[in-house]
Design a protein that fits this description.
Length: 108
């Protein structure tokens, strides 16, 4: 398997109802992961892009969250409708989708 040029991690963390942190799955993270995989399959990019599920990335209240490497760029509030743009602009064009990038102070 060739090393992927981009690796997309989709938060698939779930938590019980009423948990104070909530979770990306409660906000559609599982459906988002499936939609990423469908787009990957549709474009037949298995040799250059990997899509994986991951546990909690951090800012649960802003989810569903998606992390893209090698940049380590965090997208927040991602929906399935955003996926074609993420592929075209960032994963294939190396230009991040700025409107979805997490605020600069998010890790403070
Ligand atoms: S549950 Fe997705 S970032 Fe915490």
């Amino acid at each position: 398997m060739p090393k992927p040029k981009k690796h997309v991690f989709v938060c698939s963390q779930n938590r019980p109802p009423g948990h104070p942190r909530g979770s990306c799955v409660q906000k559609g993270g599982s459906e988002l992961l499936q939609a990423f995989w469908q787009e990957l399959q549709k474009r037949n990019l298995f040799d250059s892009i990997a899509v994986s599920y991951t546990g909690c990335i951090g800012p649960c209240d802003m989810g569903p969250n998606v992390l893209v490497y090698p940049e380590g760029l965090l997208y927040v509030g991602v929906s399935a409708a955003d996926i074609p743009e993420i592929f075209d602009s960032h994963l294939l064009g190396d230009k991040p989708v700025e409107r979805l990038v997490a605020p600069a102070g998010i890790w403070d």
